Here is the input.
Amino acid sequence: MHPLSDPKTPSFLPVSEHSDFPLQNIPFGVIERPDGIYVCASRIGDVAIDLNALQQLGYFDELELPEGLFVQEALNEFISLGRPVWRGVRQIIGALYAQGSKLEGNGKQREEIEWPIDQVEAVLPVLVGDYTDFYASREHATNVGSMFRDPDNALLPNWLHLPVGYHGRSSTIIESGMPVHRPHGQRKGPQDPAPVFGPSLKVDFELEMAFITGDGPVGYSSIPIARAEEHIFGLVLLNDWSARDIQQWEYVPLGPFLAKNFATSISPWIVTLDALAPFRTERPAQEDPSPLPYLQQDPAGANVDVHLEVSIAPEGHPETVVCVSNFKHMYWSMAQQLAHHSINGCLINAGDCMGSGTISGPDKGSFGSMLEITWNGKEPISLSDGSERSFIEDNDTVTMRGYCKKDGLRIGFGEVSATLKPALPWNPSSTSKN
Ligand code: CA
Here is the structure.
């Protein structure tokens, strides 16, 4: 049996029981090494595995990979080689790092391959070409529709028939740890006589996961639902930073615009669908109405059971968990989203990022945004330092974590974290450097 097929096979590297990165995970990312060189990497416990070093040592020879594939600032070229290559690389790393492998006693080679995680920086793992954000949680769509429109008709007529989404902005997808500045914009409450300009007063997080795609198919113009997962490289945690006051004024009729594109933070390690296979679970039933045939899918195993948490830490204070949710609540699965996205012939490329939409569960403790948790600020929550929050305050750090756990096996995503900094000075007389 291959070591990755056995949830009990340990690595010879130390992995604590609370680690998200046992031998069975083998996620993919990009690290900046202490010498300033960027390489594609994986991670076991608290050790980053340099994929370029493995290639130079000949461990990937059987896969006949292009020279220099892993000396890159992004995983895109590797991702575009397709699923057989992703699987091959992951299996080779799994065999090399299983306890008792030949590599275990080869200190000289291990010195070239391994980097302590605190000596490297895990950076943005992909160059995102196109970013799409869905709206696939029924609970979230119902909550937002109730607040912004009408509680009796919270879901718009299309919602149960297709995975609603919009094209986002890839230029402001940022790595975990990079600070976010409170955005300026136009806002106008329903009772205000006219819009005003200034820093947003309602900066919020959105708890999401996102899948990173491989290249679209060769030989068929759209991705059939049964083959959609062949084109999904893996998943990350995503915080879709949102300015609710800007959003409420601008979003009719074309949807979110400047309220959403000032920052989108993602976690650095992309966890593959193969690593998540033991945690697949049923999707909510879709019987009233049934989707059209091109979106029909067996609900068994369509979703993934990922425990998710969001915390807020005011500057200099410990964090308070404000949301506990689960990725399994999504009404529309990833395969349905990708099949729908490409059904018109829209090209899907390696490194595209598809956000799930806010992942809210059925009860208040599982709502995935402050908008829902505090019901648009009407019911503020208390943090452990005694302060109250309706939305995110300057210098608060928002951290999202996610992991799967079953039968003693824990596979996780690490975290995506960012601090909200005060609005940058806005100077109308400043001139462009061009
Ligand atoms: Ca969103």
In short: The first strand starts at residue 29 and ends at 32. The chain has nine helices and 26 strands. Residues 83-96 form the longest helix (14 residues). The mean pLDDT is 96.
